[in-house]
Amino acid sequence: MQTTYDENNIFQKIMKGEMPCHKIYEDDKTFAFLDIMPRADGHFLVIPKVGSRNILGIEEDDLTAVMKTVKKLSHAAQKAFNCDGITLQQFNEPAGGQVVFHLHFHVIPRMEGEKLKPHTGEMADNDLLARHAEMIKAAL
Ligand code: 5GP
């Protein structure tokens, strides 16, 4: 099992502003932005600012900060999309389904009877993502 943290991962680049994203929230310990390949409308990611590979390598107070942001933004997403439910997902190491090696929680608004969209590998429409980010920010 790997424990190293690669400072050049894509989420670090997003936080540093070296790669674009649809940011919805930031505080001293956490950062949140829309997933570029959403499994449902409003699907976003919450990450710690500290470089942590996954759940196995993060300090408890940093994880607590992430969970506080997950809860705060889940409420905002529920209000924004008037959704019936919220799915949280979090993957650790390749065997656990992790693809990007900076700890992140997926927050996915869900509508009754609507399945998650499949992983197609295609990026969502940029304007649509921008609109969804604005909806969540307005509900904060
Ligand atoms: P995981 O590691 O949780 O299995 O998957 C990483 C997630 O990050 C995927 O849902 C993927 O769509 C998302 N993702 C990968 N690259 C980018 C990116 O450059 N920008 C954004 N906003 N999301 C990304």
Summarize this structure as a short list of keywords or feature phrases.
3 helices; binds guanosine-5'-monophosphate; HIT family, subunit A; 140 residues; 5 strands; single chain
What do these coordinates show?
The protein has helices at 10-15, 60-81, 126-138; strands at 23-26, 30-34, 44-48, 85-89, 105-110. It is 29% helix and 18% strand. The longest helix is centred in the middle third of the chain and has 22 residues, at 60-81. Strands 1-2-3-5-4 form a 5-stranded antiparallel sheet. α2 (60-81) packs across α3 (126-138). With 140 residues, the chain is an alpha+beta fold. A hairpin with a 3-residue loop joins β1 (23-26) and β2. The protein has a single domain, classed as HIT-like (HIT family, subunit A). The protein has 3 helices and 5 strands, in the order αβββαββα. Guanosine-5'-monophosphate binds next to β2.
Termini, distance in Å? 38 Å
Radius of gyration: 14 Å
Portion of residues in helices?
25-40%
The pLDDT mean sits at: 96
Task: Note the overall shape.
Answer: globular
Number of domains: 1
Strand content: 15-25%
What CATH calls the topology is HIT family, subunit A
Oligomeric nature of the chains: single chain
CATH architecture tag: 2-Layer Sandwich
Summarize the structure.
The protein is α+β, with helices and mostly antiparallel strands. It has a single domain, classed as HIT family, subunit A (2-Layer Sandwich), CATH 3.30.428.
